[in-house]
Amino acid sequence: MCIKPKIAFLGPKGTFTHEVASTLGDDLRAFCSVDVVMDSINNGCDFGVVPIENSTEGQVGTTLDALVQKNNVKIYGERVIPINQNLLSSKGTKKENIVDVYSHAQALAQCQAYVTKNNMNPHFTLSTAAAAKSVKKINNSGAIGTLKAAELYDLEIVDTNIQDLKNNETRFVILSREDHPITGNDKTSILFSLSDDKPGDLNGVLSIFAANEINLTKIESRPSKKGLGKYIFFVDFEGHRSDEMIKYILNIIKTKTSFIKILGSYPNTMI
Ligand SMILES: O=C(O)C(=O)Cc1ccccc1
């Protein structure tokens, strides 16, 4: 007997995350926030899918913050998909009558020029599909989201491809209890913080990658939430944590940081 993996995603049905999750299996479970998707992994689900960064708007802060907080979740994989945003509304609503527009913060940011040009008031929701689900009950309102959401929640597609940049992509991570075994074309994600504020501290960590010819694929920082000027750094680099060279590098980095978390190694889909 084959047991299907249970896949959690940022829902409800009709989000971009749902689109990614449905390529991984068909036992899908919707959760209303990134936090609860992560919690579900130690609570009945095998995998969880969440957005992590967008080519127009950058990091998804809620996901990075949750990766700092949650233990027992590892990055098992990544997927990148093109993102086309659409304006949805209840049947019969005309674009010029839409006053309030609802969506995920990232989607609103990706359509900033469009929202401003059309004099719409932006409102944040936890996902694009949460917005789509709610606009039916709100007069003169629209939601920014997927075409699938229009179908699921019986909405009119008022406008398509409304994102400011046509080339708009989001990277999602697939989370699990364990990361992925080595494949030979892998990437590793870590986060760390530095103890003091001394010249060259960050460079001390980054130069270890340079000296060992390890290519970095991403570097980000987030506030540590312990005061201004205190950061957590997120670094992705090529290689798998079970590789001898990467083990060696990670051991040196441990001596140069006050806190380090290896988020996981997984196949690199971006080259
Ligand atoms: O809200 C959604 O549909 C999500 O999956 C999060 C998101 C929002 C905007 C772009 C990509 C992903």
TrEMBL record:
Residues 190-267 form the ACT domain. Keywords: Amino-acid biosynthesis, Aromatic amino acid biosynthesis, Lyase, Phenylalanine biosynthesis. It catalyses: prephenate + H(+) = 3-phenylpyruvate + CO2 + H2O. GO terms for molecular function: prephenate dehydratase activity. The keyword Lyase applies. One of its GO terms (biological process) is L-phenylalanine biosynthetic process. It comes from the Archaea. This is prephenate dehydratase. The lineage of its organism: Archaea, Methanobacteriati, Methanobacteriota, Methanomada group, Methanobacteria.
